[in-house]
Amino acid sequence: MTDNGVLKVAMPKGRIYKQASKLFRQAGLPIPEDFDDSRRLIIPVPEANMEFIMAKPVDVPTYVEYGVADIGIVGKDVLMEENKDVYELLDLGIAKCRMSVIGLPDWKPAIHPRVATKYPSVASQYFREQGQQVEVIKLNGSIELAPLIGLADRIVDMVETGQTLKENGLVEMETLFQVTSRLIANRVSYRLKNIAIQELCDRLGVAISARV
Amino acid sequence: MTKPKVFEKPTGVKDYLPHAVTKLRRIERSVLECMRLWGYEQIMTPTIEYYDTVGAASATSDRKLFKLLNQRGTTIVLRPDMTTPIARVVGSLLKDEPFPIRLSYHGNVFRAFEEEGGREAEFYQTGVELVGDSSPEADAEVIALAIASLKAAGVPSFKIAMGHVGFLNGLFEETLPGLTSEQEALKACLLQRDHVGYRDFIRKLSLDANWQRELEGILRLRGGEEVCAQALELSANAGAQAAIKHLCAVWDVLAAYGIQEHVLIDLTMIGDFSYYTGMTFEGYASHLGFPVCSGGRYDNLLAQFGRPAHATGFALKTTRILEVVEEVADERDRVLVVYDPSQRRSALADADRRRALGQAVVTEVFSSDNAQELAAARLSALTGSFTYRGTLYHALAEIGTDKGELA
């Protein structure tokens, strides 16, 4: 949003960051490796005329919607849950996983079905579309615990390899949608910084197809 | 919900303190004056309307309408925009007025509360409607006036993106003939700004490779006049061609106004399809993450109020503009008149004379209670402005006070 033309990029800390920064490097954007473990929150990269804002993944769409970051990288899971008004420009094809309904192998329809999840909005919408009225319980972590200790009969969560589920004796019942990381842009930045954003998209696009 | 604390107000509404109101009024005055100079006359309509008339015809989705019940149980809405009430007026009170009708407005509009803070439930819009003119000149006029209004408001730098709903309608009808639900799905993707979903959906349609390339290619149709030429090549559909020709004609008029540097064409920029029927546009200011104005052609609205007519217009998001406009120096001429009770009559007459000259005057009786504060004020008044009881003044006038006593 600044006039000096620096592109502000909201980057998710953690799981996605390593893969995203690698993709940026493959696209020829000079993000030095040692940023990965940096504790700094704002990292300028003047060579690329960019500034990286290190954010908690669920907050990335918020920064971008308000325009304090021009673009951002975020998982489709967060985009679906947060429902922010941003441009979804590119599927980066990284951090692949899926959003699934999970339960115990001997699951039977409960009288008062309860679903525990970190994604209450995604879960409510899904079950409503299925014509099922369920009580959605918001949890913040270790969602797999819920069916094991009887808090809920099913959970909605992200599955990457399925290893955690297997170790806890849970099974995937249905897949809601596939999840990968996306490049998103602010509505205003998308117009006012159109050239820089389009160029970044193109370079990332080339790097993505080179991978496949 | 717990009982609100006394200072709380409902989510999404704001108080405007004097310095903000000064700024807001200045923007409002300059923009309305700008609109008047373009031949638009200001109109006011009620804050509340019937849900079944204005509520139903409005472009605002039902979920976002702020609804109330009156004492008979009829549903009332707080107006979600000014365009729909104006359409109602044009179809009723002004039904014998010949076209074209040029109206301007400044007013507060409402949205139902969002679960989340940050989205406003009440905000101000300043805008115009040009009813009864279908020409490209009319569309160009509202864009030119939007630009003039943004300048009048003092927005430092901005861009307008312009599109046309007819182009996508035509292109989709050509590539996906008769497949209404697929067309709707693609439009929904674009409306939600979901380019990834749009591309995925096209790939799933297993179209001819050329069509697929073209449908994906429109995501890049942004830029200046050259976009029109590219778009003309893209679709042979009559509707799409007509849309682009109209857009080219609008562009030519904008060029004649000499303002095309502020405008870019983006054919994926679509407003609500059920509402806009032709050219649509949005304005963006740097340093602000949300659009500052939006508008377009809505040829179907007036028919819902019994007077079918072409119409085009725009609204500035005045309360948002407030955030990007520079603070202007406070040029108010504020005077403190201090008088001895025995001189009340002449002091109040003096204050009146000053007010007639445009000065803001506050009167204060001199007493032993404020003698010390006034002495301090007099001292700093010697060198210019001074503060008395928390307020800034530019001059001090004393009537009948014993200055010796003050000092």
UniProtKB/TrEMBL annotation, chain B:
Pfam families: tRNA-synt_His. The keyword Ion transport does not apply. Keywords: Amino-acid biosynthesis, Cytoplasm, Glycosyltransferase, Histidine biosynthesis, Transferase. Residues 25-341 form the Aminoacyl-transfer RNA synthetases class-II family profile domain. InterPro entries: aa-tRNA-synth_II, aa-tRNA-synth_II/BPL/LPL, HisRS-like_core, HisRS/HisZ, HisZ. It is found in: Cytoplasm. HAMAP family: HisZ (MF_00125). Required for the first step of histidine biosynthesis. May allow the feedback regulation of ATP phosphoribosyltransferase activity by histidine. This is ATP phosphoribosyltransferase regulatory subunit.
